[in-house]
Amino acid sequence: MFKGILIEKDEDGYRAALKEIDESVLHEGDVTIRVAYSTLNYKDGLAITGKSPVVRSFPMIPGIDLVGKVEQSDSADYRPGDTVVLTGWGVGEVHPGGLAERARLKSDWLVPLPKAFSPKQAMAIGTAGFTAMLCVMALERHGVKSDQGDVLVTGAGGGVGSVAISILSNLGYRVVGVSGRPEEVDYIKSLGAAEVLDRGEFDKPGKPLAKERWAGAIDVVGSHTLANVCASMRYRGVVAACGLVGGMDFPATVAPFILRGVTLAGVDSVMCPKTERLEAWERLARDLDVSKLEQIHQEIGLSEAIEVAGKLLAGEVRGRMLVDISR
């Protein structure tokens, strides 16, 4: 038995509770891990509250990422005592995840803890920070350079946005954030944003083409926000899209793409190949100012995760939400 959050669905309904979990709940895997930290991401909030059908197998332990020590291994790649990081691969959705004291996973899903980070720092980055790095890499891959103009980051006060702004500003880009929370403006600027725009400029229906403003953009919102970002890109600008907190729809036209040569690059961190995962973690070690992690993350205990999940969905959480599994 081990402690964790368990989501169950039966004739009595959908519910998440902190409880003692039998090891039989864990699925097959060749590595068993004693989890030290996990995080709360938007997808975890949806899973815990049941606001969206994220969980596709019951009972389920939520938590789409984790860091911890290997307890048992049938893999030649990992030995007991090794510290490993997990993000994605459907963990917390179809395979029991990180919001529990123990996890059993496939070794192919794991990466060794980068030497530049402590376990706590690795999860202060977590899935959101990893995704942010993938977005920056996508902009670079499509030729966006720091001297070409401003880069826009939506959801600037959230996990992906906070880390993206920190990385971009550290690389010399002039970053403009977008947020719907005026109280977070100073925080967003402290991460490196040159200015912060109100979300209201982007989240309503707009024109097929707007004034050219951005050389690059990272969007976590989708819907009208993504459409308006695309409409206001400079000629041959690039948008890295990785989220849908504003909705899955994309009410846009082809005008930005065929008249300005705008590129819309989709970024997925769940099934990302291992080679790119390792590259992203190497880049995080090099390009993220680790001192900013203290600003970016808040820490809670596992016992607080269910309550905080609702606040996360309500947009009341700043940056990254680190979960200490031991308390």
Explain how this protein is built.
The chain has 327 residues and is an alpha/beta fold. It has 2 domains: 2-113 and 292-324, Medium-chain alcohol dehydrogenases, catalytic domain (Quinone Oxidoreductase, Chain A, domain 1); 127-266, NAD(P)-binding Rossmann-like Domain (Rossmann fold), CATH 3.40.50.720. Helices cover 28% and strands 28% of the residues. It contains 9 helices and 15 strands. The model has no long low-confidence stretch (mean pLDDT 95). Pfam families: ADH_N, ADH_zinc_N.
Features:
seven-stranded mixed sheet; single chain; Quinone Oxidoreductase, Chain A, domain 1; globular; 327 residues; alpha/beta; Rossmann fold; six-stranded parallel sheet; 9 helices; 28% strand; 2 domains
Approximate helicity band: 25-40%
**Radius of gyration, CA atoms, in whole angstroms:** 20 Å
CATH T-level fold name of the largest domain: Quinone Oxidoreductase, Chain A, domain 1
CATH architecture of the largest domain: Alpha-Beta Complex
Mean pLDDT: 95
How many discrete domains?
A: 2
Number of helices: 9
Low-pLDDT residue intervals, each spanning 5 or more residues? none
CATH domain class name of the largest domain: Alpha Beta
Q: What percent of residues are in strands?
A: 25-35%
Secondary-structure element order, as H and E?
Answer: EEEHEEEEHEHEHEEHEHEHHEHE
Q: Provide the structure class.
A: alpha/beta
Number of strands: 15
Sheet of most strands:
7 strands, mixed
